[in-house]
Amino acid sequence: MRKAVSSRTLCFMSTPNLNFAIACLKDSAFRLSVLQSDLSLADGWPIVAYARLSGCRLPQRVAGSTLFDRIRASDVRPALSVYFFGGPDGAAEAACLQLQAENGGVSCAGFHTPGFGSIEEMSTPEQIDRINRARPDVLVLALGAKKGQAWIQRNLQQLEVPVVSHLGAVVNFVAGSIKRAPGWVQSAGLEWLWRVKEEPGLWRRYAGDGAALLGLLARRTFVWTRHRGLEDSDLAAQPSGQIITHRSDAGTTIVLSGRWVRQNTARLRDELAQLCGRRDHASIDMLGVTRLDSSSIGLMSLLYGWQLKINRDFKIAAFSDSAYRAIRLAHAEYLFDTAAGASQQTFSRVTR
Q1: Are the C-beta atoms of residues 138 and 10 closer than 8 Å to each other?
Q2: What is the model's pLDDT at position 352?
Q3: CA–CA distance, 99 with 170 (Å, rounded to integer)
Q4: pLDDT for 68
Q5: How many other C-beta atoms are found inside a 10 Å radius of the C-beta of residue 82?
Q6: Nearest residue to 45 via CA among 218, 227, 206
Q7: FRET partner for 154 with CA separation of 20 to 30 A, picked from 71, 102, 255, 308?
Q8: Of 44, 31, 32, 39, whose CA–CA distance to 5 is shortest?
Q9: How far apart, in whole angstroms, are the C-alpha atoms of residue 177 and residue 196?
Q10: Cβ distance 29 to 119 under 8 Å?
Q11: Any idea of the CA torsion for 308, 314, 319, 324, to the nearest 10 degrees?
């Protein structure tokens, strides 16, 4: 964040938690807002636990409110300036007054409470200009996750703010209208229970997300864990991941074969980064893939988001049964949805 501020480089930061994850399964636009973010934090212990079950060991939870508190308590100068957009009536103003009184690591550049209108009503040139004229380092939105992410996607290119993020609870925490859970409650993974105590209306959302998580665990994650265990039993017999790149006037085709797991995804990451730099149409051939884990699927998801962002095609041209099964169990079927690409080309499933 500090690097983005010092260079005035855009950093769209998302903070996916369990509610984000469940919503991403049903809402393609919301999912795309996460995939196209410059930085995503694992905001919630269910995300960390679920990732570990899926074979991707995230080191820890990093809540957006914890990050904000760290910067707020920092003695690094100059202080980062923040603009609050949204929240309940009076909360943003109270948060600004609190930051000004603290004279700590975060100062207040301004605030605006747009009410409960539509995204269009909150995206007028006057409102965008008001934010830009305040020249904040960080724009914090509090509009509700879906509306906030959609607002950012709509207005990001018009904003002249280095760091933009929806951190809904931060406004209330700073204002003091809602108390954040003590450290031991956070460490125990029970902050959600504390939030329900502070905001009883959240129980419906938490209950719905919890039920959806249990369903995902039963239908997919436990199946994938067993699937990975069976593949691990003969891992030594599988060839290591191989990658071949073909370039033409039509775009770039990347041919993958062998096993692609966390230990060798650095090569895949480098290859996909080069492809992104070329801004070509992208085609992925996974016919020879014998093993695909969540880290590789995650890289392809990021490529998918990038290709749509720059209006270029993303196409999985061919895939093995093993690759297809892994992508399906990882909830990433959208990678096969080439209708989202620029030219809506068709793809074929080729099995082994």
Answers
A1: no
A2: 34
A3: 12
A4: 94
A5: 29
A6: 206
A7: 71
A8: 39
A9: 14
A10: no
A11: 10
What length does the chain have?
352
Burial of 47 (0-12, 13-18, 19+ CB in 10 A): buried
pLDDT of residue 329: 87
Q: Give the pLDDT of residue 95.
A: 95
Give yes or no for a contact between 300 and 334, defined as CB atoms under 8 angstroms apart: no
Closest CA to 11 of 159, 190, 185: 159
Q: Looking at the DSSP assignment, which residues form a beta bridge with residue 327? A: none
Plot region of 158 (φ>0 → left; ψ -120 to 50 → alpha; else → beta): alpha
Report the distance separating Cα 36 and Cα 38, nearest Å: 7
Q: In the structure encoding, which two tokens stand for residue 5, read together? A: 């501020």
What pLDDT shows up at residue 239?
Answer: 62
Tell me how far apart the alpha carbons of residues 323 and 292 are, in angstroms, rounded to a whole number. 6
Pick the closest to residue 198 from 166, 230, 220, 175 (CA basis).
175
Q: 3-state SS string over the chain?
A: CHHHHHHCCCEEEECCCHHHHHHHHHCHHHHHHHHCCCEECCCCHHHHHHHHHCCCCCCCCCCHHHHHHHHHCCCCCCCEEEEEEECCCCHHHHHHHHHHHHCCCEEEEEEECCCCCCCCCCCCHHHHHHHHHHCCCEEEEECCHHHHHHHHHHHHHHCCCCEEEECHHHHHHHHCCCCCCCHHHHHCCCHHHHHHHHCHHHHHHHHHHHHHHHHHHHHHHHHHHHHHHHHHCCHHHCCECEEEEEEECCEEEEEEEEEECHHHHHHHHHHHHHHHHHCCCEEEEEEEEEEECHHHHHHHHHHHHHHHHCCCCEEEEEECHHHHHHHHHCCCHHHHCHHHCCCCCCCCCCCC
Looking at residue 262, its pLDDT comes to 83
pLDDT for position 275: 94
What is the Cα–Cα distance from 103 to 72, expressed in whole angstroms? 9
Distance between CA 153 and CA 147 in Å, rounded?
10
Q: What is the pLDDT of residues 181-228, one digit of tens each?
A: 888 888 777 787 878 788 788 788 888 888 988 888 888 877 777 766
